[in-house]
């Protein structure tokens, strides 16, 4: 299996070759040359597999250059009931991603039982083990540099802690995260984890990461890498739980289901799209946005109007406050019939778009618009008031507490589902991470899993720094042994 770029101008690479890479050299994103197909016999055999065995079955179709026994060992130590057990009440951790049924035909797929209580752990934990494996083989080291406003940074740190050959330098805005989020990251005492609190906003931290990454000489000399959401390894790991959720919600492989996905960077739902392209019987993929509704607008009208940061709202589902979804290009590549030239044309207009009033591209009335229906997407939007209402209704009717992002997915999923299709709503985080909104909705604090009790009291390890790139570079250099 080789990987090609969505812009069609980069040489094909293997899975391990792109594992530590970001964008392709032509600025595109990597995708498999062809999606591997799952036969009916395979689907039947996979139905009863454990999560780790299913992950092996799916991933061995993508990571064809990793020896079978090695890949099997990697997934076996990634997807264990120890790692995906945060002590939350009444979950079946042996399933890794247990399915919770609200009423017959409406389910929540629990993806937040990992160490940081968000679905990002599902992919990041695998990435940590894959990185360690690949670096070991190449006798290489990697220094991961990133900026976070919450979920991604903590998931990366918990995945990379204690890993041979890997160091993490994670920037966060000083004093801008919740006490819980700060404690989650800063209480890690591992020698290879470095938390850096920047006196500024998230964007300042992000700009510093970009400045270091654009200094190609420094980047190469210091073996700097990233783990952002375009990483193919992350997308491929997320395909697995679509299969797992499908098997849990159905009796036979003749049935179809709908998935509802709270979306930001389009990484999670992109994995669902690929699972469907592989042959998983998904009848509907429902994309949910919050007030930042660029993608909802596209799927409803065909117009793609990415907004600038000044038109990106801060909402109570903050991990979806995104107006330029980085993985969307992967879907558009399939939509335009895998025509790299067409993608280059579209994205040259995206990059040039300066106003939010005009669409960067609009497929209404073109062949693409007719093609779009084949991909089975529906979409909708959920606002702060919808979120509060959904959280309240779930709590009052079922005694189930959901976080604000999952609430967005439930609201849009219930609204958009086709009658007759079982609905599987992906849970992207636990309510414990978003205490303020839960208190606003329910007048009470969310339960906190045992593993997170009292973490605010633990000693913290963090370097406070001004938004100064020179200082950051000096810090990184000083913490890499020669
Ligand atoms: C990252 C994240 C999302 C958005 O997922 P994408 O893959 O970026 O679409 C939704 N909810 C939570 C809690 C997240 O952390």
Task: Quickly describe the structure.
Residues 2-79 form the Threonine synthase N-terminal domain. The protein is built from 19 helices and 15 strands. With 482 residues, it is an alpha/beta fold.
What topology does this entry show?
Blueprint: E1 3-5, H1 15-19, E2 30-32, H2 40-46, H3 51-59, H4 68-78, E3 99-103, E4 106-110, H5 120-138, E5 142-147, H6 151-160, E6 166-173, H7 179-186, E7 193-199, H8 202-214, H9 216-221, E8 224-225, H10 232-249, E9 257-262, H11 267-278, E10 282-289, H12 294-301, E11 303-304, H13 328-335, H14 340-352, E12 361-362, H15 367-372, E13 377-381, H16 384-398, H17 404-416, E14 423-427, H18 435-442, E15 463-466, H19 469-478
Parallel strand pairs: 4-14, 5-6, 5-8, 6-7, 7-15, 9-10, 9-14, 10-13
Antiparallel strand pairs: 1-2, 3-4, 11-12
The structure holds pyridoxal-5'-phosphate (PLP).
Structural overview:
By secondary structure, this protein is of the alpha/beta class. The protein has a domain at about 95-115 and about 235-440: Rossmann fold, CATH 3.40.50.1100. Helices cover about 40% and strands about 15% of the residues. The chain contains 19 helices and 15 strands. The strands form four sheets. A six-stranded mixed β-sheet has the order 3-4-14-9-10-13, sandwiched between helices. Strands 8-5-6-7-15 form a five-stranded parallel β-sheet, sandwiched between helices. Strand 5, helix 6 (about 150-160) and strand 6 form a beta-alpha-beta unit. The protein is globular, with a radius of gyration of 21 Å. The relative contact order is 0.14. The mean pLDDT is about 95. Bound molecules: pyridoxal-5'-phosphate. Pyridoxal-5'-phosphate binds next to helix 11.
